Amino acid sequence: MAKGFLYVAENLSMAGLLKVGRTEKIPTARLEELFTTGVPEPFDVAYYALVQDSKKSAGYNGFC
Questions:
Q1: How would you classify the pairing of strands 4-10 and 44-51?
Q2: 49 CB contacts (<8 Å, ≥6 apart)?
Q3: Do residues 23 and 51 make contact, with C-beta atoms less than 8 angstroms apart?
Q4: For the chain, where are the alpha helices, taking DSSP H only?
Q5: 10 phi and psi, to 5 degrees?
Q6: What pTM was computed for the model?
Q7: Do strands 4-10 and 18-23 pair parallel, antiparallel, or not at all (unpaired)?
Q8: Structural domain boundaries in the chain
Q9: Are residues 5 and 51 in contact, defined by beta-carbon separation less than 8 angstroms?
Q10: Residue 4: which pLDDT band, with cuts at 50, 70 and 90?
Q11: What per-residue confidence (pLDDT) applies to 60?
């Protein structure tokens, strides 16, 4: 069981899309990892929740 976070993030350069994911790190730290040379704007956390089993709780992981 991996205690962690489920998160929803948004990015101004990708209007209308949300990034849904899970991490065992603090969500802001995970989103900093996603801000690379291929992404013009950093991601912002729209929502996050601490869960007991992040792998089991993440029913879907990706852009929606």
A1: antiparallel
A2: 5, 6, 7
A3: no
A4: 27-34, 54-57
A5: -130, 160
A6: 0.82
A7: antiparallel
A8: 4-63
A9: yes
A10: very high
A11: 52
